Amino acid sequence: MTPQEVLAELTALQAGDVPTHGGSTMAYVYDAGLAGLEDLAAAAQAAFQWTNALDPTAFPSVARIEDDLVGAAADLLGGGPATVGTVTSGGTESCLLAVLAARERWRARGGSGRPRLLLPVTAHAAFRKAAHLFDLDVVDVAVDPLTCRALPSAVAAELDARAALVVVSAPSYPHGVLDPVGEVAALAAAAGVPCHVDACIGGWVLPFLDDVPEPFDLSVPGVTSLSVDLHKYGYAPKGVSVLLTAEPELRQGHWFSTAGWPGYPVVNPTLAGTRPAGPMAAAWAVHRWLGRDGYADLARATRAATVALAEGAAAIPGLRVVGTPVATLVALAQDGPDGVDVLNLADETTARGWLLQPQPPFAQPGGADLPATLHLTVTGATAGRVDALLADLVDAARAAAALPRPVADPDLVAAAATIDPAALTVPEVDALLELAGVGGGRLPERMAPVHALVAALPRPVAERLLAGVLDLVYRPRRAAPTR
Hints:
Blueprint: H1 3-13, H2 37-47, H3 60-76, E1 84-88, H4 91-108, E2 116-120, H5 126-134, E3 137-141, H6 152-156, E4 163-169, H7 181-190, E5 195-198, E6 225-229, E7 241-245, H8 248-252, E8 256-258, E9 266-268, H9 278-314, E10 319-321, E11 329-334, H10 342-351, E12 357-359, E13 373-377, H11 386-401, H12 410-416, H13 426-436, H14 448-456, H15 459-473
Parallel strand pairs: 2-3, 2-4, 4-5, 5-6
Antiparallel strand pairs: 1-7, 6-7, 8-9, 10-11, 11-13, 12-13
């Protein structure tokens, strides 16, 4: 194939993807809507695409780029003279490393048994992944069912000798609300437990706003680490995040160093060895171009659009806004028993060209369940399209209200209650997915019944089946045999 044919084939592969520009995809991607930004980022990334960030002594440019990005994040987010940080591949890796560092500190201070990770149920799933990888027990901490903010009293009840880390969100991804960082961090500090602020999605927005209700960053006493993604509202290509730690000793807990083999001595500050320098360079270039004033303009315009969107959505019959959104995220829920089912609403908005993210209902400790919601991430590119989005939301809500509510097949749910998910083989999972209507990795056009089923199944069974869907999607393509 010629280079032109290869690129044409790549372009054709994207035909079924959701759009990454224009503001209609309100999850997964972040579009500033600024002319020239993408070209600058692409040029910077191309200039460093062959550079290996594994060894900053061989590539000192990488150390300079990383130090500049960490310094900018520390200046923006309340860092003190001792604050250090690490550039990672994304928010998940930043969260993983924060948990790893806290676990190592807990062990070094004589912790015995299995360490515990205290998570408000609204904390990002990346922390559950960290607990799985690094052998911590997850302690689900209830949030207020109305505000969806973490409950300090619930955190306090779980602070014991096995607590290795407490997590709070600024804001939480599901609902866009700000946890009571100061209260929780103070409780954690009094118990001698580190406190991590997950500001992956809000850390590059909240510092530029005038209406943030309370401090949330490293300036808050008791906060020991903070994560912020530059590939979200830093508007850099994926994947670039920064993990800040209040002092260098904590950062050492997630570094890996070995001279225990015949090869070169290895020191890795992140989970990866070889690290791509291209995304770092792109983030650096975008940051240098926009500067604080450019980011402030984007943040304020996007926040204003978010407020207008929340007010307009709350006025749609049958819908309500969950909690008090503080940044650029909005969650919509059914208002009253006869309100609009938001899982159906998600399908109706998809049909009108918008990707809004459905979130099934969630049973939390204590029985105060959280409702199904529809998640909207507002970016710079969406800011000029709020009126169009609201008009489509009104029309979609009217259509969704006329549909029957999605209900999981009771026979399938009853059968699932008898299943040991750990014992399921891949063929058995494939067969169950066929019964659920998602066989062959093909998702149905209307996803509301699938989300209703996920919510109704026992959580371990649902998780096994969800992994099965991805297993079907990622089946290798084989070349046809030749003669």
